[in-house]
Amino acid sequence: MKLKSTARLLALTYSLITLCNFALAEEAIQQEKIRPGEVKFLKFPGGAAHPNFSCRDLRLPIQNSKDGYTVVVSESYFSKLEPFQCVLKDDEKILTKINFTVEPKEFAHENLHVDSTRVVISDEIKKRVEAELALAKQVYASSLDTLQFKEPFISPLKSKITSPFGIKRNYNHGKKIGEHLGIDFRAKVGKKIPAANRGKVVLSQEFYMSGNIVIIDHGIGIFTVYNHLSKRLVTVGDMVEKGQIIGLAGKTGRVSGPHLHWGANIQGNLVDGFNLVDESSRYFKP
Questions:
Q1: In the chain, what percentage of residues exceed pLDDT 70?
Q2: Is residue 10 in some structural domain?
Q3: Residue 209 shares a structural domain with residue 131
Q4: Are residues 277 and 149 in the same domain?
Q5: What's the pTM value of the predicted model, to 2 decimals?
Q6: Bridge partners, residue 204, by sequence
Q7: What pLDDT digit, counting tens, does each position of 89-108 carry?
Q8: 273 is in which domain, residue-wise?
Q9: Whole-angstrom Cα distance, residue 243 to residue 224?
């Protein structure tokens, strides 16, 4: 009797341990850090029947491949620095929780003195600008379902940075204050501009503020944008390869001199392109 009781107790204990281990294995918890204007590539093991991913209760795109799941999380430049949680599920079953801590990031300030006509625009021009912003927003709202690239992003140029991402701008002693949410590279008119990675051209047009602009969709909400081009060499629908020349640098739009403004938009958040380069390099590191 004692042997049977002991055997039952051991079996029950083993079952409980197994169930606990199974539960722990089924629902993992991961800790991550991110700062305003940054992006994070995350990869998880595959195998779920109906995988889905969300952050702050908002469903985000997920790349499903034989190597597992890839998701991209971004944080707004205007972040309130509040922690948030992302969840990977199989249908409604939680597989992994990712707790994000948002760390502060300091951005520089600069004072710019420009002609008053460049600070204030007419009502007619304002309507045009608003329409172009709405068009860009519409473009960013729809992205390809899968990643279009298999290599890290590259910086389109290696020239001097004339204005970094995130710098706060004070125009004419406070008459207008704004933020520069892209990277400005010094570039002579006619300088060849390459695509930062493989993707599909979703906008090739002339805007009032941005001049000749090209936007490339790289999949699952990742876009790069190239402004103030003197000439656009691609059209909507074109698939471009990493490093392919998509246009020539210029000074079109509302600018004071020739340069390339390069931006990155990740699921609606404007992020630092250099951070996108670094994060994608880490993700694709062997």
A1: 85
A2: no
A3: yes
A4: yes
A5: 0.87
A6: 214
A7: 999 999 999 999 999 999 98
A8: 109-283
A9: 13
